[in-house]
Amino acid sequence: MKQALDQKNWMQLNKLMPGYKFNLGGHINHSLFWKCLAPVKLGGGKLPEKTSKLSQEIEKTWGSCEKFMEAYTTLLTGVQGSGWGWLVWDPAAKALRTMQT
């Protein structure tokens, strides 16, 4: 990578980028995944407070946290092999969305 950058070899960089993107993305996703699975005493494993902005947005979009979890489970059931599901904020729509990567 360094050699390709130093030489401004854009074709070689283009060939190398998918591997870096895949591996770095996987590292970041796994780090976040394990943090989200933290025990309750460390802030993980519980639903957001009903009065939180997140809970309010979930209820606005799906009707309840339970209905969100059902929809999210349905979305992810079809993922085979390596894949991720995300709850994301869409700033253009000013709404929560789910997506797969």
Structure description:
The chain is mainly α and 101 residues long. It is 54% helix and 12% strand. The chain contains four helices and two strands, in the order ααααββ. It has helices spanning 2-6, 10-36, 53-62, 65-77; strands at residues 85-90, 95-100. It has a two-stranded antiparallel sheet. α3 packs across α4. It is elongated, with a radius of gyration of 18 Å. The model has no long low-confidence stretch (mean pLDDT 84).
Record keyword descriptors for this entry:
4 helices; 101 residues; two-stranded antiparallel sheet; mainly alpha
Short summary:
The chain is built from 4 helices and 2 strands.
List the helices and strands and how they pair.
Layout: H1 2-6, H2 10-36, H3 53-62, H4 65-77, E1 85-90, E2 95-100
Antiparallel strand pairs: 1-2
Q: Major sheet: order of its strands?
A: 1-2
Q: Please tell me how large the radius of gyration is.
A: 18 Å
Total number of helical segments?
4
- Name the beta content range: 5-15%
Distance between the termini: 25 Å
Spans of at least 5 consecutive residues whose pLDDT stays below 50 are: none
As a percent range, the share of helical residues equals 40-55%
Structural class by sheet pairing and helices:
mainly alpha
